[in-house]
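Hey, I was hoping to borrow your eyes for a little while. I've been staring at a protein lately and its backbone has me curious. You're getting the sequence in one-letter code plus the fold written as tokens. Would you mind checking whether the tokens look sensible for this chain? Here's the protein in full, and shout if anything looks odd to you:
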Amino acid sequence: MRIPERVRAIELPQFDLLNDIADRWTARGADVIRLGQALPGFDPPPMAVAALRASLDDRSSHTYSSDAGIPELRHALAASLRALGADLDPDNEIIISAGGNQAFQLAVTTLIDPGDEVILVSPYFLNHEMAVRSVGAVPVEAPVPATRGFVPSWADIEPHLTPKTAAVVVVSPSNPTGAVIGGSELTRITSECAVRNIVVCVDETYLRFCYDSPPATAVGLPNWRDNVVVIGSFSKAFAITGWRCGYLLARPAAVAEAMKIQDCMVICAPVPVQRAVTAVLEREPDYPQRWLPELRERRDVLVGALNAVHGVTAVRPAGGFFVMARLDGVTDSRASAEELINQQQVVTIPGRFFGKAGEGYLRISYGAATPDRLEEACRRIEAYLSD
């Protein structure tokens, strides 16, 4: 069977390989500290679980919803985002997706032609690079220096523009760096791209996890409808990563075109899950905020412990669940990640998985780890570097 070059060009990150190594150590009775996968360390809202159970007794939950998602969810989402300054029409500017990844795939399939160039602010979210390649487009890295906390600016993006540039992708708060773009800089990026007819896709999966400033959505920008597409997810905010529910926000004309792709891609997000998410958004949209003090403590403990290790530099993130840790002398982060599991039983993600700008770093996820486990992980990292 012939496999197209655009698919063969996609490199699948070896998460499973790293997890398999960790599983083997666990089977031997080792105390493995898992700081790899991006998981929240709290439970779903009880009302979401109750609503999901109740929906199974409702016959309408076992049939398709409209492709854009049930109206109740779209209106509840719009209301929750309006509280963050959004200007949004729930009937014409929202598509509910089967997770954030599907929303991004929907965006690039709708808006990008084969051969187009898509600038990825780097270190980037690895599935974005894969999705760009899947539609035959060309990912272009725009590296952002750690000296600025990995916070991107227009000056990082502009040198990479060419006549083939069709879109710029930013993630705020960032996976993998935790960087948060300020409103003025995001306005500059979107405005500069608008005059060049370039789409700006803003992934706001971690929108509800901002520690040093209130969350601000890109659909609150004055002229967002000119060229902005927003990707969002309920997976992290409500700790329902296995339920698969997210969203795409765009101006009505773009949503109308994206509906064609939605219909042939998934038709609709799982209806019982849509109903469960609606229940939370209507009754407790700020559910993630109850976890912010604990997550902020974990962040501060981890960054402090990492920077106390000789040969390690960690940038303090403003959001998300992640810290990018620079290890002096590391030129192959994948090899280092494997060694760290085998020698000290600590699971991290190689920075190289997030682009060339991530090489030399390990991404450490603190979302599901207690402060004492994070401190123990740092002691083991110190032992690894001392060997």
The longest strand covers residues 165-171. Residues 46-286 form a domain with the Aspartate Aminotransferase; domain 2 fold (CATH 3.40.640.10).
